[in-house]
Amino acid sequence: MEKIQNYWVESFLTLIDLCKIKTNESIIVLTETRSRELNVIILEQAIKKIGLEFIKIEIPSKPYLIDPIVKSTGASNILDGNNVYIKKLKESDIIFDLTKEGLMHSKQTKEILSSGTRIMNISDEHPEILSRLKPDLHLKNRVKEAVLKCRNSSIMKVISDAGTNLEVNMKKTNTVGVWGWTDKPGTLAHWPGGLVVSFPNTSCVNGKLVFQTGDINLTFKKYFDTEVTFDIENDFVKTISGKGTDKKLIEKYFKSFNDKNSYATSHVGWGLNNKSRYEALTMYDKSELNGTELRALSGCFLYSTGANEFANRFTEGHFDLPMMDCTILLDDNIVVDKGYVV
User: Fold this and answer.
1) Which of 11, 92, 141, 154 has CA 20 to 30 A from 166's CA?
2) Half-sphere exposure (CA, 13 Å, Cβ side) for 7?
3) What is the pTM of this model?
4) CA distance 250 to 296
5) pLDDT tens column, 206-239
6) For residues 310 and 312, what is the distance between their CA atoms, to the nearest angstrom?
7) Where are any strands of DSSP class E within 179-235?
8) Phi, psi for 38 (deg, rounded to 5)
């Protein structure tokens, strides 16, 4: 294991401080046997350094009982059928979530949050990435402003010179913002943060997305090498076109789940974190990063397929697809102009 650096610990201390944990609040550090041990150790050191007490729960990792390779879903399966652990989690005040996939889209998350427990997900990234993107106070107001704009709008339009033309009914969406920490009961955040995402209800998303060379497929942890087009009708990807390997890979992966919901829109939004680096996928081995940084990349349009708890759709299939150089409009007001946040 790598030698723990002091500045890694300092970034974890910053996170804990911003979560405003009271001395009488109960803390659970939730891990699984496949969790990144380095992050678990650093978190435990940081909590002890502040003088807080915690309970560590480690659950054996579970295999996925399907043929496709499942990665970067944000929907950990470790709580499936584990009602005893769910009860313990609901009785806590804050959960530091270090599961491999995270609890963001897990089936049990809504129940846990409804008890007043807050969930602080630490993304499965190397601590060097986390420390480079340590929680930033300036992000909170930036994200909250974007959330307010989304909640007050009726239509989101996404266009690009490449031919993207997507429309989202914002009247029937649930918008959340993540700035990287949580200090309110019943809320969830993930670190790194810095993005706004809207979860559409049924029949809200229609149009066309044209992915260009240099756009990002975070499920495969690679940049697009060739053009791919999605035609989307009433939330679902109906046709996939293109002539390169990217189209073949995406199409085969979708089909492998044999699940209609894997083609459905999970969420749409854009990144607001100026510290996120576009070139991050080239700078780290795939095992070192989960790619949350690229989801929060300032000015990217994030289109995701798969689980959407607000539309009561659950599936193991998931794509996170940040797009560059898009223009995003809310009721014809530009909020992102060709990849730059207005």
Assistant:
1) 141
2) 7
3) 0.94
4) 22
5) 999 999 999 999 999 999 999 999 999 999 999 9
6) 5
7) 188-191, 195-200, 205-211, 216-217, 222-223, 228-233
8) -60, -45
